Amino acid sequence: MASTDIVYEQVHFRHDPKWSVRLRSAEGGGLLLCVACAIEMMETEEMPSVRKCFALSSISGFLKRSAGALRELFRQDHRVTLHFITTLIDLNCLNFSDSCLCVCDSVLVQLLLEFHNELPFHFVLDEVHKQLSGQLSGKRLLPTFNFLGNLVKTVPNVGHSFITQYGPLLDHLCSALAYPDEALKTSVVHVWLQLMQMSGDAGAQYLPIATRDRLCTLLLQTFSNASSAQLIKNCAGLLWQLVKYEEAVSVLMSSSGGPLMCDADEDVLTNNSPSLIQDQEQQPTDHSLLPLLLKKLLLSGDESLQVTSAKCIAAILVHSPSQYCALCIKADLPGFLFDRLASSSSEMLLWSIYSCLVLLTEEPLFFSQCHSVYGIESLVRSLKEALQLSNLEAPKQGFLLLTEILERQPPGVHLFPSASGFVAVSEAVKAGVSSSCLLVAAQAVKAATALFRLNHQSRPVQYQQLEELVEAISSRFPELILTSPSLRRSMGNKRSSDSSSQTFRSKGFLLQALICFQAACRLAEECASEPALMKNPFTAPYKHSGAQDSLESVCQCLLRCCDSVWIPAVLRTCDGPPSAQILESLYSILCSQFVLLPSLMPQFAKKLVSSGFYRLAVEHKALLCSGNRNPNLNAACCGFLQKLSMCLLFHFENNASISQDDFDEVETLLQCSLPALRCHLSDWPSLLCEYQEPRAVQYCLVMMLYLALKQGDRLLPDQAVFSSVVVLLQSVQEQGDCVLPRSVLRSALYLLAVTQDRSPSLDGAHLNYVSKALSSCQSFASLYSHHPALLHFIWRYPELAQKYGALVLELWLAKKSQTGARQDTVLRLQLTIVLLLALMEKHPNVMLTLLDMVVGGQAPVAEHVLHVLKVLLLGQMCSDYAACITHSKLLVLQNKLISTQLHPSAAASSLPVVLKLLCLTQASDPPSPSIYSNMEGVCFKLLYHAVSSVAGMLKPTDTESLLPAFNFLQCCLRLSPAHSSDRAVSVLLSNRGLMDQLQTVVSSSSTPSPPPPSCPPLALLCCSHLLLSSLITLQRVHSTQVHKSIIWSLDTAVHRLFCQKRNTDNLLLVSYLRMLQALLDADLASPVVCLSTGPGLVGPRPLAPEDGALYPLGSTGAQCLLITLSGLLMQKHELLLRTSVNCLNSLLGFLKRKNPDLAKQAVCQPWSQFLLYCNFSSGEKCLLHPALLRLITLLLQYGSTAVLWEPDLLHVIDTVERSGIKELNHEAARALRSLLAQ
Asked: Highest taxon of the source (predicted)?
C-alpha cells in the first residue's frame, strides 16, 4: 500500500487537476496525491477506517519529505485548507482506533505548524470549543484533548492565545478534570501542563485568577485520587509549574484534603511504592492536603517524582518561609526528606532535598521537634555519597545544609552525644575540605566553623579530630592564588581570563578558613577554661602529657599552622589591596595564641617582631581604620599589639627592676591609647614632637618603638627617634607636666642610647633635659636596660657619667655575673672585655671606677670585675693601662686599710678581692723597662701595705684573705728584680705579725696523722710552704736579718713524704719538696726556719758519726728521702716530676758537702739503675723529657755507675738524632746541653 496513490477513484475524475500533485522520489516515479480526494475520503462514512488511516499516514509522510510542494498546493485556496483541517478535527470525535487518531493528530499538528504564519489559530480553537461544548461523552473527548495538548506543545503562540482569549475553553478544561476517567484526566492535565510551560514556564501568570484558583483545587482533587503512573507524573509536573507562583501556592496550601480524599485502600502510588499514607482519612479538615501529596511523591519509587516533590517543597518555602515552614514541619516533611537522603545517590534529588531542608532550617520548629537530631546521620552519610558525584553543586548545597543545622541548633540539644557521631561528621567535613572544587571546600570550611562550637563537642572531646580538621584546611593554602592578576602580569606570569575569578575564590576561601581558625582558637580557649574538658578521662594518666588526643596537642597544632601556613598566606594577600576582614581574622587568631600557649609565646613574639608585625599592624590600622572605619579590625589590631607588647615586656625585660605596678601601668597605657592611634609610621616623629594633652598616645609610641627596637625592628630612622625623644622630654619639662611614667622613661633612655651613633651629640640644654628626666626617678636601676649602648651613652657625657657611670657599670657587671652560669661564660667574658676596652679607650676614668667597684662593690660584682681585670692584665691591654692600674691600686689599698681600721666589718668582705687584684697585677707580664723605674717605688709601697694588711688585719682563721695575701707576697719575692729583692725580703722578715701568721698555718698541719678539721685549706698550706721556701732562699742570698724564726717539724715532713704520699695531694707534695729543697740548699741551717727532728730520723743519742754529720736529717732521713724521690720520679705529673729532680739535686749536694762517701753510695744504689731502665722503656717522648735528662746529668755528675756510655747515653743520642734537635723545646735543649757537657 505504500506505493498506492492517494486518490478516491470514484470521484477523482470530478476534481480539478490543480489539487493533485505527484511527489517525486529519489528512485524516480512518485505518488499521486489529490487533496480533494483526501477530503472526500475523510468525509465519506462508508470509507473504511483503515483506508483513511493509510491516507493520513501518507499525507504525514508527504509533509515530512516534501512539505514545500504540499504548502504550494494548499496555498491555492485557504478555504480548502481550513475545510481539510475541520474535517480532520471532526475525525477526532469518531470511534477510530488509537493509532488512527494518533496519525490524525500528527497530520493536524504538521499542517498547522506549516501554516502557523498564514492561518488564524482561533479557527482551530473555535472548532475544538464546539466539540467540547457538544454533548459528547468523556471518552470521545479524549482524542480532542490529546490533539489540543500536542497542538499547544508543538505550534508556537497557540498556548498564549488559548489562555488569554479562550476563557470558556479553559473552563471546559477545568470541568474535564471532574470526569472519572483517568485517561481523560491524564490528557487534560497534560494540556494544562503544556499551557503552563509556554513562554518559558510563564503560562500561569496569564491565567484568570478564578480559573487558576479553580485549577489548583481541581488539581489537588485529581492528584489525591490519581492511580495511574502517567496521571501522577502529569499532576506532579503541573503542580511544579503552579507552585512557582505565590498566589497559586496560597490556594494550594489553603486547600483542605478532607472532602477530596479517596478511600484509604486506593492505591495511589506506582508499583514500586512501599506503602500508602495510612492516616490520610484521619487528618483534620483544616490540614493542608498538599504536604501529604508531596510525601506521597517522596515515598514513590520514581526518582523523577521524588525530585519534583523536593523542588515543589523548595518553591513553596521560597515564597514565604515564615508562612509555610511550620506547616511543612508539622506534616513531618523534614523526616521524609531525610529518609530520602539516606537512600539516594542522585545528584538532582540530593540537591533538591538539600535545598528544601536549608529553607526548613529557618523555622525554629525544625529544631524544637528534633528533626535535626533525627536527620543528622542521614545527612552525613549522604554528604559522603555526594562528594563522589561529578556534579559538585550537590555537595556544596549539602554542606550549606550542614552549616545551617550546626549554626541554628539550640545549645541545649546535642547533635553528637557520642564520639562516633562527631567523628563521622568531622570525617565528612574533612572530605569536603579536600574537594577539588574550591567552592565546595569553602562551604565545607563554613561547616567546620560551625562545628568548632563547644555545644557540638562530644564527651570526651575529640581533640584529634579537631586537629586533623585544622591541618586539612591548612593544607589547601599552598594552592590558593592570592596575588592580584595585575601583579602576576607585572611579574611575567600570564594567566587565562579567569584568573580574576580564581583569585576571588581563593581569597574567599582564605577568609572563611581564617574565620574557621578563629573559631577553633575560641573553642580551645573555652575547653581550657573547663578542667573537665582539658583531658580525656578515658586516657591513661601517663599518656596525658603530650598525648596526640589532647588540648595541648591542638593548641600546638594551631600555633604551628599559624606560624608556617596562615601568616605567610595572609602576607601574600597584602601584596595587593589588603582585606579588612582577612586581617581582622588574622590578628584575632594571633591574639588567641598568647592565651593558648603562653609558655611558647616569648619566642613566637620575638619572631613576630623580627618579621615586622609591629610595622604591619600599625600600617594596617592607618590604612583601613582611619576615620572610624572598620572598628572590628581596629579592635583586633589593638588587642594584638597590646598582647605582643606585654609579652615582650614580661619575658625580655629585667623583671627585678620592673614592678607589677609598672606592668599594669604599661598595659593600661596601651589599652587606652592604641585605639586612637591610626596614623602611619611616617607621621610618628611629628606626633612625638607636638604638644598634646593627654600624652598617653605619645607615651604609647615610645613604648612600641622601644619594644620593637629591642628585638631588632627599627620602625623609624635612628636620627628621627633620637631627636623626637629629646623633644618629647623637653616638652614634658617645659609644660610642667608630672614626672614621666617609669616605664616610659626607661624606654626613652634606651632609645636615646641605641640611636646615639647615627645622631648628633646632645648640646648643653638638651643634655640638661635628659639629666633632669633621669633625676626624676628615685632608682636608676629601675631605668636600666642591659645593652652596651647604654654604657656608651652614660659615659659619653661627663655630667651623666659623674652621676650614673658607676651605677651603670655595676648594673652591667651584676647582670653578667647573674647570667654567666647559664650562658656561655667564655663568650660573654670576651664580649665584656671588648666592650670595656672600647669604653676605656674613649673614657679612661672607667678604669678607676672599676677599681672602686672592686673595693666597694658587692661580692658577685667585685669578683666579676676582678675576672675582667684578670683578662685585661694577661696581655689584653697595653702597658700604659697596666701602669695606671698599679698606681690606682696603691690608692685603693691605702684607702682600704684606712676604711678597714675605721669599719672592720664593712670592709672585710672586699679585702680578699683587693688582695687578689694585687696578686693578679704582680703575676701579669712585667712592664717595659722604660716605665719600670716609675713603678718600682709604687710596687714596693704596695708590698709594704700588703704586709701590713696581713699582719694587722687578718686573723689566722681568715683563710679567704690569707690565701691571696700570701700569693701576692710570694709573687713579689719571686718576680722582683735582683737589685730590689733584698728590700722585699727585709720587709717580710722584719714583720713579726706576718711570721706569726705563717707559724700558725704550718703548725696546724704538722701532725703526721690525717689532718684534723681545723687544718687550713690545702691551697693556703701550699702557699705558705712556697713563701717560706722563697724567704729561706733570699735570706741566704742577701744575709737578711731575721727577727723571728718559724718552727717546722722536719721529721713530720719526711714522714708524710715517705709514708703518706699516696694520700697526699700532688700540689702539697710539690710545696713540701720546694721547702726541703730550700732547706737542703742552706744545709738545713736557716735562721728563717728552726727545724725540729726526732729519733726516727737521727736515731738515739748519742748520735752516730753519720747521723751527726747529717743532723738534723740523719742517715735514716736521707735514705727515706732518696727512696721517696725515686718513687716520685716515676710519676707522670709534670710539676711533681720537675720538683723531684730539683729536690734530688739539692739532697745530693747536701750529702756531698756533709759526707761525700754517702753521696757516692746513694747514686750507685740499684734504685738508680732501675729508675733509668723504667724511663728508657717508656718511649722516646719520655726519654727526651727535660727532667729525665737532668736526672741522667745528676747521676753522671755524682759518679753513678748506673749510667753507661753503652747503651744508655748512646740510646739518648740516637733518640735525639731520630727526632731532631729542632723538635726539642728550649728547656729540653738546655738539659741536653748540660748532659753532654757533663
From this structure: Eukaryota
